[in-house]
């Protein structure tokens, strides 16, 4: 395989990992592992928004390439598949066409179906409402609100609006729907329902990856992810606060 083809395969694998929610050290390790499988010496530097790779070609000249990452989601199935793919190259190297075809198949994995995602988005608030010593009715209301705010978030994501707005709009929806539920059933606890409902919006993976990046010495990436998590939490909180400031006036 030619050097530029090795770079393209490694870059595609790194892109899938980074957009799927992998840690920085995992992306860098996978890229260098793939290049090493084809006897190409590579240096890789990764940020949450970009991948930088430099290799030495057959003539001894350095070749660098950059890939800008604009979309980051959570798809741990893709992360696991790329990990397995990179390790399998140590035992059997693939041609450029085979490697790219395999990576494109992994990139096409969309996880679970939309209906199942909606159900799970409702189950998490349902369970947390009970965990916070809520009633079954409060858990059922949280279940419905969780489904609605997840659907809203997905629609905004598909529309291509900037990331933090989807969390803000979801926070507004959570606060408004919780307030409406209290208007219909005054004996329920408003704040318990809100807390349970917004659990699915909290940036748990971003905070976890930030801590792991820091432990592996990737301080810049760690600070980036922590800042992102703070902005996400703030967007959700501001959305809920606005909804409550309006809704509580007519409860």
From TrEMBL:
Domain of life: Bacteria
Keywords for this protein: Cell membrane, Membrane, Transmembrane, Transmembrane helix
GO cellular component: plasma membrane
Biological process per Gene Ontology, one example term: succinate transport
Compartment(s) where it occurs, according to its Swiss-Prot or TrEMBL record: Cell membrane
Transmembrane segments: 136-152, 164-184, 190-208, 229-250
Database matches in InterPro entries: ThrE-like_N, ThrE_Dicarb/AminoAcid_Exp
One MF annotation (Gene Ontology) recorded for this entry: transmembrane transporter activity
Major localization listed first in the record, in broad terms: membrane
Membrane topology: Multi-pass membrane protein
All residue ranges annotated as the Threonine/serine exporter-like N-terminal domain in the record: 9-246
Pfam families: ThrE
Family assignment from sequence similarity: Belongs to the ThrE exporter (TC 2.A.79) family.
Protein's name in the database: Threonine/serine exporter-like N-terminal domain-containing protein
UniProt organism field: Acetivibrio thermocellus (strain ATCC 27405 / DSM 1237 / JCM 9322 / NBRC 103400 / NCIMB 10682 / NRRL B-4536 / VPI 7372)
């Amino acid at each position: 395989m030619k050097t530029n083809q090795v770079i393209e395969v490694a870059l595609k694998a790194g892109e899938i990992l980074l957009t799927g929610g992998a840690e920085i050290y995992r992306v860098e390790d996978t890229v260098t592992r793939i290049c090493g499988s084809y006897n190409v010496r590579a240096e890789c530097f990764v940020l949450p928004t970009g991948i930088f790779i430099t290799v030495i070609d057959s003539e001894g000249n350095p070749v660098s390439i950059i890939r800008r990452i604009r979309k980051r989601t959570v798809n741990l199935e893709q992360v696991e598949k790329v990990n397995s793919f990179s390790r399998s190259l140590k035992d059997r190297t693939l041609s450029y066409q085979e490697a790219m075809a395999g990576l494109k198949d992994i990139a096409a994995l969309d996880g679970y179906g939309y209906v199942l995602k909606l159900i799970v988005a409702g189950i998490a608030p349902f369970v947390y409402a009970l965990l916070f010593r809520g009633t079954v009715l409060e858990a059922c209301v949280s279940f419905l609100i969780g489904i609605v705010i997840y659907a809203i978030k997905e629609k905004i994501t598909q529309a291509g609006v900037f990331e933090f707005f989807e969390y803000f709009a979801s926070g507004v929806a959570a606060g408004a729907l919780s307030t409406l539920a209290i208007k219909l059933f005054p004996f329920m606890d408003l704040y318990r329902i809100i807390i349970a409902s917004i659990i699915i919006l909290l940036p748990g993976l971003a905070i976890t990856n930030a801590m792991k990046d820091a432990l592996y010495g990737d301080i810049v990436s760690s600070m980036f992810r922590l800042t992102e998590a703070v902005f996400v939490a703030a967007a959700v909180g501001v959305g809920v606060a606005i909804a409550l400031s309006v809704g509580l006036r007519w409860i």
